[in-house]
Amino acid sequence: MITNKKSPSILCGGMSIMLVENVMTTDLITISVPGRRKTALEIMRKHNLSELPVLKEGTRKIVGFVSLEDLIQHPDEDQLALIMNRNVITIPPKSDITEAARLMYEQDVKNISVVKDDTLVGLVTLKDLVVRGISRMQIKEKCEKYMKSRILAVWQETPIPLVALIMRYSKALATVVLNDEGEVGGIVDTADFVKSSEIINVLQKTDMQQESEGEEWVWETKSTLYIGTERLKLPDISVKELMTSDVVTITSTTTITQCARLMKKHDIEQLPVIDAQGNLIGIVRDCDLLRALVTL
Questions:
Q1: Cβ-count burial 116-128 (b if 16+ within 10 Å, e if not)
Q2: Taking the model in full, what pTM does it have?
Q3: What pLDDT, in 10s, does the model give residues 38-89?
Q4: Residue 158 Cα distances to 164, 189, 218, angstroms
Q5: What does the alpha-carbon distance between residue 282 and residue 251 come to, in Å, rounded to a whole number?
Q6: Number of domains composing the chain
Q7: Cβ-count burial of 133 within 10 angstroms (0-12 exposed, 13-18 middle, 19+ buried)?
Q8: What gap in Å lies between CA 86 and CA 33, rounded to an integer?
């Protein structure tokens, strides 16, 4: 667990700064340990979430996070304690949001636990920093400096299970979807997978072998054990049937604050960047805006 104990400052250059407690999320959906993967999957689907804070049962002490990716990577493990990520980064509620952004950027995480007296009082997420932080600032720097020119893209007829596999291998949370003309037709992310999936119980066959030796005989028996494991089943449809087709695009001259305001307005996490001819030249993600906040 990484804890930041830096003393908060209230003024910066004579101007009031924005504190973590002013942007953090306090209405949290959590899960406790001991717990099971089935419960985590059900909560994620019900609330359209791809990650959950994990608390010690009967307390408000955070002990980890469990994400959809964690569940996918451990398909045969049932106990939440053996699946969850125990890398918990904490920050006091009165810290400057730029300190939260720095921790998030350096530790490569999408949320930080806000803790007071060893009690979880909220989460400051990447979305919080963009929607409630950067969108209220006046960062006039152009997004060109921060956009990614390497873009993950799939064809609109690609089956959803294959898209999920491509994203997993690319360690991407979203991908651009191209139509038959090679133009941006939509975007799909892991949250879309959660919404469209169903939880199924997979019976896994396991052979158990026993041997015993005696002076005059040897016996061998095999029994088959079927273990029920909850899996997330993705629909076998093309990605165009699931993608968000109303894509909001920007140009390389769009400012950081304008990007954040567009993400807030449309409740999105990435913005494809196009040139004057409408060609796709890059993408700006919420984590890219975080870099701009860190450099302030």
A1: eeeebbbbbbbbb
A2: 0.72
A3: 899 889 888 888 889 999 999 999 999 998 888 878 878 889 999 999 989 9
A4: 10, 14, 54
A5: 9
A6: 3
A7: buried
A8: 12
